[in-house]
Amino acid sequence: MLNQIRVFDQVVVSGSFSKAGRVLNMAPSSVSRTIDNLEHTLQSTLFRRSTRHVSLTEEGEYFYQQSAKILLETNSLIAEMKGDNTEPKGALRISVFESFGNLVIASILPRFLAKYPQVTVELDLDNNIVDLNRENIDVAIRIGTPQDSNLKARKLMPNLTSLVATPEYLATHPNIDQPEDLHQHNCLLISHARQRNYFYFSNDSEQRRVSVCGNLISKGGSPLLSAALQGAGVLLLSTWMVEPYLKSQQLVEVLPHWTVNHSEEGSGEIYAIYKGMEYPKPHVRAWLDFLVAELKPR
């Protein structure tokens, strides 16, 4: 049937069976017979025919609009399977949550653009979940896999977390030797839907859930990190955010022998999410491969 659709498409473009036949190297009678068979399969009349030209019926117009998508996706898939080495080019729209976009993606984007000079990137820093189709986003970077089965995902890196504070804060507040000692401390908190906040601790032998509270709550991690660096309290945040400050010793780990998370299920993993209904275009594939290679060492 795919070949019939190709013939149908060419008749629409050419405006007649004879002209389509010349393009396809087919006799007009063969073109006509192919269209007859397609109409029989569909149980629909696709063309109004006269001796001079053909025109689409209402059903034919609808079929043309829908079948054009099939041909486009088929041609893209065939080119990919044949090893289409087309240079990546065009506009690439990326949505990424704000802190990861500023601290990680912004630092590697120049290398990607230098490698693929014909690609133009539009970066959208947004902590809200976006609809890739409605917002015309090529790739979204999020924590966790998508719920939409029409989307695909590639894992980039684990989202490990660290419990930290400044040396000055720890020197002027009660010791933190056990998870429950956090009851005496101001904890800088990521906003959650639930009314109470908990940190979940685990080690080789046990697990603990500790209720925590504090005077600063934020949906994004950047304001909390800024406050923590000024000695405002204890912070549980993604390791990729606090790692530079641990290296410079502006922050130090608290309870380093425990693994700490915001939920019982852990802190999840970071994924690149893209549309699953379309075969990735060269510049989208290039970005996905680049991301995996860049972030794998982390």
Automatic annotation (TrEMBL):
Cite the Pfam families for this sequence.
HTH_1, LysR_substrate
The record's keywords, sorted A to Z, are: DNA-binding, Transcription, Transcription regulation
What is the superkingdom listed in this entry's lineage? Answer: Bacteria
Gene Ontology MF term list: DNA binding; DNA-binding transcription factor activity
Looking up InterPro entries in the UniProt record yields: LysR-type_TF_proteobact-type, LysR_HTH_N, LysR_subst-bd, WH-like_DNA-bd_sf, WH_DNA-bd_sf
Residue ranges of every copy of the HTH lysR-type domain listed in the record? 1-57
Please verify whether the record's keywords include Transcription regulation: yes
- List the SUPFAM superfamilies hit by this protein, alphabetically: Periplasmic binding protein-like II, Winged helix' DNA-binding domain
Family according to the record: Belongs to the LysR transcriptional regulatory family.
Q: What is this protein called?
A: LysR family transcriptional regulator
Which organism's genome codes for this protein? Vibrio sinensis
